[in-house]
Sequence to fold (649 residues):
Amino acid sequence: MLSDLLLLVRTKLEADLLCRELECLEEALFMTDTGGWNEILRTKVRLSVAEIISYEFPQDIEGRRKQLRELKESLLNLPVVNLTLAIEPTLDLVTELSNHLRDAVNAEIILDIQSDSLIVGGAVITFQGRFGDYSAASKMERAWNENSANLISIAYGNK
Amino acid sequence: MATNKKSSKNLFTDYLKESGEVGYVEKVVSSIIQVVGLPSVKLGEMVLLESGQLGQVMCLRPDQVEVLVFDKEAIRVATRVTRLKRKLSVPVGDWLLGNMIDVLGRPILGKPDNTTSEWRPVDISSSGIGSRVRVDKPFVTGTMMVDLLVPMGKGQRELVLGDRKTGKSYFLNQTVMSQSKEDNLCVYAAVGKQKTEIRKVREFLVKNGIAGKTVVVAASSQDSAGEIYLCPYTAMTIAEYFRDKGHDVFVVLDDMSTHAKFYRELSLLSHKFPGRDSYPGDIFHVHSKLLERSGYFKVGEKAVAITCMPVIETVQGDLSGYIQTNMMSMTDGHIYFDSDLYFRGRRPAINPFVSVTRVGRQTQTPLRRDAGRTLLDLLNSYEKTQSFLKFGAELGESSRQILAMGDKILKFLDQPIHVVIPLNVQLVLLALLITGVWGGEHSERLVEAYNNDSVSRKNVDDVVGRNDAMVKLMEDVRKSADLWLTKLVV
Fold:
């Protein structure tokens, strides 16, 4: 059940959103109005999430509280890949990247995507303390450092 | 400022690309930050923060890295951190002489050096016994009280302890001056001192023309706890550099009680289990590991010394405190500055009966050893006889003579701050005093003659050289009393 919900989360933003929804539901547990839980599910929680919760969550307050706590804990501990791209990624690209990483690395992995046009192309990736700069800017810089004399002479024709 | 920020950002990016590892600040507690990430970082390694500060890895936990930051600027949570892939090191070179530097080797006063190619790790293990030699050369402090009664050898570690404002710093300055005159180099570590005190030390060095032979490593009380903790290590690293170049070095660690306090602060902040007086369990190890780096070493064919004087401040003359006793046990003796003597007007206010030297006497000639013994006997008798005075007892002729001699000796040992007395001159003056040929005034005249006149120097060196006992020396100077009096009395 939990894994169904976690599969819906592909990015850090989505994880934060789900976390906020769960907090709203947690507040509903302590409302005196017995219809509060369903009201929150209807008005403040996304349909896809609400469906899973209403089918899978236990009916007693204590059971719901325990499930919510476990779910929030799991969300906070999801492994995050920080990704800096030169463009704002489309939804399809995010899905594709997420699916690829989940197949290749870890089924629970989520993405924290930032965009920075200065990197020109490629990506800068940080994961579990490891840092990799696979950007076009850094490759160009390296190429310039290695061949600056040649490039200048080609450009100005002073060979 | 903007340019600095930009350049530190660029530097950070370069190191980040090179190391390929990043961490994020999770918690900030004073000078200590907790970082998540940096999976392959090593203990003692340097790290660089995105905001430009440098730090050293102090502790590795399964999910966190604890870093000591050498900066007082505020650090934000979530700041990125990267590895520098090298142990904490400082730049070294001859350019250090005459400079005042901070604990990371950056000049505070004096010219920065951009040609430095040598960097030395700050925290290293001391050399083993195989690279050490027996302490067999005298170390001249230039203070008669110490050179005659608590003699030191080159490579000795002698603790200087006493209450605040009892003349410890004057004595240390005098020793620095004496060592500089002998062409040795000095490293002065100001550990958590006030800026005005650091400036005073610097002014003393400049005023006496010895700044060019000294390096001051300064961490003021306004610096971060990390910098204060690191200060003596940097000083010792610099001393080791000059030792390896063949120079005898004198290191002053002023003062180690402040160092212990700041180390305690850092340890408590990083949740190390507190022991006696809340100091961490490894405080002895921290200090002894540092002091073991001084000594008398074989460098090539030569024997070269790092003589070290750590300073400890006592409270109301209490010698039984935790740090005091620790330091006493890891040094080769101690010189105790007595506040009672200071207030009675003795300068230097060293108490010779409480002070100890463990290896200094083995460096002395038989004559010097005999002179020290004679002087101590005289002072002992003086103290004993003085205690009778308290009972209002009527004194006999011999007691009166002892008291008169004691007064003369105390006057003789009362040495002006800027006068450094060579060892041989000390012996001749003592012999002249005890024989009654000389009254104890104007000792600086013989020092001046010794320093400037080759004939006088020869006279002094000859008379000391041809006698091997104090009785013989006294007899010798009595015979040539006129010669000495012409130099002492104008």
Q: What stands out?
A: Chain B is about 40% helix and 20% strand. The longest helix of chain B spans residues 366-389.
